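Sanity check

After download, print the first record. It should look like this:
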Amino acid sequence: MRDKTQANSTAAGDRLIRAGAIVFFVGAVATLVTMAPLLLRTKPFPTYMFGLSMLMAVGFLMAGAGVLQSIAEGRRRARAARS
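Expected structure tokens:
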């Protein structure tokens, strides 16, 4: 099966995993920026910055959905190969 797959082809869910990783890291940076004033004892950021911190969870869910999509595609291919 590997000889029929191109090296640069993307499997199902790969784009979703990459997008989820990017969103997760943006959320991680937002979390660090949001927590810095609390640790430095300066004036905290506005509330919407805490909302940006939730991008970590959104990115994690996006990447998880991509992994599940990849698993489902692999199972479909395995069933088709058995038949």
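If your output differs, re-run the checksum step. Summary of this record's structure: Helices lie at 14-40, 47-53, 55-82.
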